[in-house]
């Protein structure tokens, strides 16, 4: 491979916001569920009861990680399902009470598209603007509340630019007004402390593959007494709210992964922050016409998002790939889109600059040597592309 040809034994993976490798400890915890504890948790015999105990242990691990009660955790197929359930479920259950939802302009598409679907059904949605750093102003949330508001949904941390939102302040406003508050915490688990009570959160979505767990498993936290509709009809699984045979191996992997992520968070944040800050500092110092996207300090420890003028982010990715570096232009869910990032345009970037963005998201595999390598090849990639760009005024 190209990376090996250039003296590297492995590629540099800096797209951990898109997905992460499954930890060996997680795989080890899951394996017995495929061959030994494979019973259906909804059955009554001993093998099934053993699977049920295993499932509930995993539920408890997730609950403990976010400060919730075990019975408030519902397993889902991932963050997208959890977001859909939270938004559409609360809307359906509270239709007689009101028809207004408040969210932000930079939410993940799982939230934005759910809201747009509800708009087609007659609901009204306020999409709050953000400042140049991608932060939602809590006062703007309060100002948007009406007598018909039935849900507030603001993500804990943005998946593209890494900006951390003032969730506790927004949660306090929601609580004061008696409005359910949902947060998409898919990027936040294992990156920032999460406690649903101190944050004032009533619904929280998370996804295992973002913190070294398996794909296809996530969870939705639903605070007791929160009015929400059933997500899927069928059997009585997940206390009658989400039908379908439970994914016991996935749940076990999720439980183990979140337990490890929370336990190791302080050490990981310190290490990743140092690499993140060096990447940001040296990219901005060595490459002209470059801008940092997102908040300079209130951002996830592993997130670097920069915009390069006069070139396309897609071209940067392709050239980095030939050099053994895996990165992204933004959300993995929209990386194939020709449209500029809705997050960056909401932060005020013109489309031509938004198109020139690069997201580097660090993880457990990355080392200082990886940072050195990226810093050695990226300036040359940008310089080469700018020489070919018709947008470059110096070309």
Overview of this structure, please?
This protein has 395 residues and is an alpha/beta fold. It folds into two domains: 2-17 and 265-388, Alpha-Beta Complex (Aspartate Aminotransferase, domain 1), CATH 3.90.1150; 24-263, Aspartate Aminotransferase, domain 2. It is 42% helix and 13% strand. It has 16 helices and twelve strands. The protein has a seven-stranded mixed sheet, sandwiched between helices. Helix 8 links the parallel strand 5 and strand 6. Helix 7 (138-144) runs parallel beside helix 8. The radius of gyration is 22 Å and the shape is globular. It starts with a helix and ends in a 7-residue tail after the last helix. The model has no long low-confidence stretch (mean pLDDT 94).
Question: Which properties best describe this structure?
Answer:
single chain; 395 residues; alpha/beta; Aspartate Aminotransferase, domain 1; Aspartate Aminotransferase, domain 2; 2 domains; 7-stranded mixed beta sheet; 3-stranded antiparallel beta sheet; 16 helices
Brief characterization of the structure:
The chain is an alpha/beta fold and 395 residues long. 42% of the residues lie in helices and 13% in strands. The protein has helices at 2-5, 24-30, 32-35, 46-66, 79-93, 109-120, 138-144, 167-177, 196-199, 237-240, 248-263, 265-286, 313-322, 342-346, 351-354, 368-388, and strands spanning 12-13, 73-76, 100-104, 124-128, 149-153, 181-184, 203-207, 218-222, 290-292, 303-308, 325-326, 357-361.
């Amino acid at each position: 491979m190209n990376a090996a040809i250039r003296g590297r034994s492995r590629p540099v993976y800096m797209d951990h916001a898109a997905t992460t490798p499954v930890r060996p400890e997680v795989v080890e915890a899951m394996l017995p569920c495929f061959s030994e504890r494979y019973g259906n948790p909804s059955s009554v015999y001993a093998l099934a009861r053993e699977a049920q105990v295993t499932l509930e242990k995993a539920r408890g691990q997730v609950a403990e990680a976010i400060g919730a009660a075990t019975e408030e955790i519902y397993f889902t197929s991932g963050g997208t399902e959890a977001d859909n359930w939270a938004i559409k479920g609360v809307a359906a259950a509270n239709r007689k009470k009101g028809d207004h939802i408040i969210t932000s302009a930079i939410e993940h598409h799982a939230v934005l598209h759910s809201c747009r679907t509800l708009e087609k059904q007659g609901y009204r949605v306020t999409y709050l603007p953000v400042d140049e750093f991608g932060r939602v102003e809590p006062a703007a949330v309060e100002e948007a509340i009406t007598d018909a508001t039935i849900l507030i949904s603001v993500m804990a941390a943005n998946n593209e630019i890494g900006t951390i939102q003032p969730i506790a302040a927004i949660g306090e406003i929601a609580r004061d007004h008696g409005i359910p508050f949902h947060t998409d915490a898919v990027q936040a688990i294992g990156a920032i402390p999460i406690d649903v009570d101190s944050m004032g959160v009533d619904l929280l979505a998370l996804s295992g593959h973002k913190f070294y767990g398996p794909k296809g498993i996530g969870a939705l936290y639903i605070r007791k007494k929160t009015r929400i509709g059933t997500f899927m009809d069928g059997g009585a699984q997940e206390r009658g709210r989400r039908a379908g045979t439970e994914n016991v191996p996935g749940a076990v992997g999720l439980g183990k992964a979140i337990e490890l992520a929370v336990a190791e968070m302080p050490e990981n944040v310190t290490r990743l922050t140092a690499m993140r800050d060096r990447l940001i500092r040296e990219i901005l110092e060595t490459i002209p016409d470059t801008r940092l996207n997102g908040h300079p300090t209130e951002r996830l420890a592993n997130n670097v998002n920069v915009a390069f003028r006069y070139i396309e982010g897609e071209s940067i990715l392709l050239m980095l790939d030939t050099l053994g570096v895996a990165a992204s232009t933004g959300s993995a869910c929209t990386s194939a889109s020709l449209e500029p990032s809705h997050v960056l345009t909401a932060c005020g970037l013109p489309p031509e600059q938004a198109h020139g963005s690069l997201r580097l998201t660090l993880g457990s595999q990355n080392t200082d040597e990886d940072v050195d390598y990226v810093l050695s090849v990226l300036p040359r990639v940008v310089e080469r592309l700018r020489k070919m760009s018709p947008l470059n005024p110096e070309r």
